[in-house]
Write a structure and sequence with these properties.
- With 120 residues, the protein is an all-alpha fold.
- The protein is 57% helix and 0% strand.
- It has 5 helices and no strands.
- Helix 1 runs antiparallel to helix 2, helix 1 runs parallel beside helix 4 and helix 2 runs antiparallel to helix 4.
Length: 120
């Protein structure tokens, strides 16, 4: 996964993941474990890990999480990874479901016909 993404793209992905982990206003241990797993897969350096840790303490500014900045070629990867964090605790809160649906709609307007949808 790390080789597919530039440093900025990895940062953007982690910011989105942390934002979605905060959708229900709390970070559960399972969500934290999922985030740590992705941090490892992305081979983030110490500064990047620290930044992710801060986002797990205080959510990223919503205005800094712009779906239209996700490169088209990476949108499926972002959706799959974000879906992973919202499923990590075994339940999908209404806020998580709604936010994911909005993000999915925005990103799929690009014509990607393969969809990712959380179960209800």
């Amino acid at each position: 996964m790390s080789s597919q993404l530039s440093r900025n793209d990895r940062r953007r992905l982690m910011k989105f993941i942390c934002s979605f982990a905060w959708a229900d206003l709390q970070i559960r241990p399972e969500e934290r474990e999922f985030v740590e797993h992705i941090v490892t897969k992305l081979e983030l350096d110490a500064a990047e890990r620290d930044e992710v840790e801060r986002w797990l303490e205080v959510p990223p500014d919503p205005e800094s999480v712009d779906p239209m900045l996700i490169p088209i070629a990476q949108r499926r990867l972002f959706l799959q990874t974000i879906e992973g964090v919202i499923r990590a605790d075994g339940e999908i809160a209404p806020e998580e479901r709604e936010n994911f649906a909005l993000l999915k709609d925005l990103l799929e307007d690009t014509g990607d016909d393969e969809s990712v949808t959380p179960s209800h």
